[in-house]
């Protein structure tokens, strides 16, 4: 009888909210992943957990699980925004907060940052989960997850201030950023990084861009206990040459000199002045630290730009910037020490400090 009662209690726990420890971990994962992704967008601050939103989100997730009638938005959520997610799975494998947030974020491909509308004439709803995740005006979130006895999981995340307000998409979804292409793609996760778009490129702004980019490199290198980089005219000329070749061809070109390492970025130019464009692109590359395991290091295409930035033996840097006729801007940063894709943990541990 006691066994049956305990089974009923466990079943009730799953129906109405999953085990508390799993639920708490899930909420923290949702918060962490939101802030990692929001950090990829310029002038977009992180969010914090709000207890009231959390309770309301959990209550709605519980109701969805109990009703078993699909994903229905709550019409009485006191002005809060809402993202919902459903997964049919075994009770042994609940979705993580990061996985859930990633599903929503992947809708970036349906969003046009310049027009503030969906791509290909689709309704904005096809990008709505993504735009809510990175909505600039949002400052607080609350997450809830519930499961029924058949392994169906329901997720509800509430947002304050609510996103997806008609007429405010451009202002709240990267008004000052452009879409990074090619090297801005985190291929393994199929994400596309977003970074600041550059304005017209007279000589003085190229110089300012380089200064900001180098300064930010050195701020970040200092956090890892490595020496600052110094600008080098030869590397600058090489970076500029490669950037101009890229803008002439409309795509990135390979650096065929194995004495160096380089980071590249391709953005869409915008007609507005962004004083910290160089720093923001450096921040974008540095954000790949998320995909680097210091305990079991490996250099690959989802963390390579971060690794090259803080490589211990690098001491010099050169920055090249060029624009093509279609307003595509190519950025090439050259470092005087090569680092290659490698599984040599000792080499990586020696040159990439935590």
From TrEMBL:
<protein>
    <recommendedName>
        <fullName>SCP domain-containing protein</fullName>
    </recommendedName>
</protein>
<dbReference type="InterPro" id="IPR014044">
    <property type="entry name" value="CAP_dom"/>
</dbReference>
<dbReference type="Pfam" id="PF00188">
    <property type="entry name" value="CAP"/>
</dbReference>
<dbReference type="InterPro" id="IPR018244">
    <property type="entry name" value="Allrgn_V5/Tpx1_CS"/>
</dbReference>
<dbReference type="GO" id="GO:0005615">
    <property type="term" value="C:extracellular space"/>
</dbReference>
<dbReference type="InterPro" id="IPR035940">
    <property type="entry name" value="CAP_sf"/>
</dbReference>
<feature type="domain" description="SCP">
    <location>
        <begin position="25"/>
        <end position="167"/>
    </location>
</feature>
<feature type="domain" description="SCP">
    <location>
        <begin position="208"/>
        <end position="343"/>
    </location>
</feature>
<dbReference type="InterPro" id="IPR034113">
    <property type="entry name" value="SCP_GAPR1-like"/>
</dbReference>
<dbReference type="InterPro" id="IPR001283">
    <property type="entry name" value="CRISP-related"/>
</dbReference>
């Amino acid at each position: 009888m006691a066994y049956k009662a305990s089974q009923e209690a466990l079943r009730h726990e799953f129906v109405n909210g999953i085990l508390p420890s799993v639920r708490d971990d899930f909420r923290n994962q949702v918060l962490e992943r939101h802030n990692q992704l929001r950090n990829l967008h310029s002038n977009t601050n992180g969010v914090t957990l709000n207890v009231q939103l959390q309770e309301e989100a959990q209550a709605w997730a519980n109701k969805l699980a109990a009703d078993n009638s699909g994903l229905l938005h709550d019409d009485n959520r006191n002005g809060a925004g809402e993202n919902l997610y459903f997964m049919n799975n075994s009770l042994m494998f609940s979705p993580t907060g990061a996985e859930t947030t990633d599903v929503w974020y992947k809708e970036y491909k349906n969003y046009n940052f310049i027009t503030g509308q969906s791509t290909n004439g689709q309704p904005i709803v096809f990008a709505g989960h993504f735009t809510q995740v990175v909505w600039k005006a949002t400052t607080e979130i609350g997450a809830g997850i519930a499961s029924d006895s058949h392994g169906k999981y329901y997720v509800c995340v509430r947002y304050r201030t609510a996103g997806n307000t008609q007429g405010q998409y451009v202002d709240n979804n990267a008004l000052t950023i452009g879409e990074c292409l090619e090297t801005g793609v985190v291929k393994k996760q199929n994400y596309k990084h977003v970074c600041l778009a550059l304005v017209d490129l007279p000589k003085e702004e190229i110089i300012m861009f380089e200064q900001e980019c180098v300064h930010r490199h050195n701020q970040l290198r200092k956090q890892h206990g490595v020496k600052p980089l110094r600008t080098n005219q030869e590397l600058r000329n090489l970076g500029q040459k490669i950037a101009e070749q890229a803008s002439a061809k409309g795509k990135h070109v390979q650096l065929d000199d194995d004495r160096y390492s380089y980071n590249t970025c391709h953005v869409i130019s915008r007609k507005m002045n962004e004083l910290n464009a160089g720093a923001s692109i450096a921040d974008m590359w540095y954000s790949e630290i998320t995909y680097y395991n210091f305990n079991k290091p490996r250099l690959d295409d989802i963390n390579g730009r971060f690794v090259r930035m803080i490589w211990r033996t690098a001491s010099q840097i050169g920055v090249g910037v060029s624009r093509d006729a279609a307003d595509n801007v190519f950025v090439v940063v050259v470092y005087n020490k090569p680092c290659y894709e490698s599984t040599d943990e000792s080499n990586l541990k020696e040159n990439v400090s935590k």
